[in-house]
């Protein structure tokens, strides 16, 4: 993947011709557990989440969101899992100024554009609102010559997956 300025690039016909490389780090231990995921700009944020969970040892049975920087619950802009997005009132109804998007309908290009992401910025990812598995993604590269339809793929990794449901202690 050729390193370039981390900005959206459009083809002659207006179609996306960019793939992005994100380093997704486990917030409690970012040096020991991370994954590099490459994804085409036309793919959805939901697809990136599915790929991340599969490689990090997490299931798909809980609510989740992507947000700005490392703000998690305090993000001004969030990308929610489809189940939550469909069933929640709009923030304006609740008196909040938060901007909420459906992660299943938001492309990676849209996320990069709306958040004006540059290399080394951060996007937070919170999975399972009860256990609060916290991650953050750092944009590493943008390849303007790659297919915008490239499926999310883990291209580098460090650390063993988390144990989402550790065995109960014996004798308790």
Q: Encode the helix/strand succession as letters.
A: EEHEEHHEHEEE
In which range does the helix fraction lie? Answer: 10-25%
Distance between the termini: 51 Å
Strand arrangement in the largest pleated sheet: 5-4-3-6-7-1-2-8
**Major sheet size, sense and barrel closure:** 8 strands, mixed
CATH superfamily: MM3350-like
Structural commentary:
- The protein is an alpha+beta fold and 172 residues long.
- The protein has one domain: MM3350-like (Structural Genomics Hypothetical 15.5 Kd Protein In mrcA-pckA Intergenic Region, Chain A), CATH 3.10.290.
- An 8-stranded mixed sheet has the order 5-4-3-6-7-1-2-8.
- The longest helix has 12 residues.
- The chain is globular and about 50 Å long.
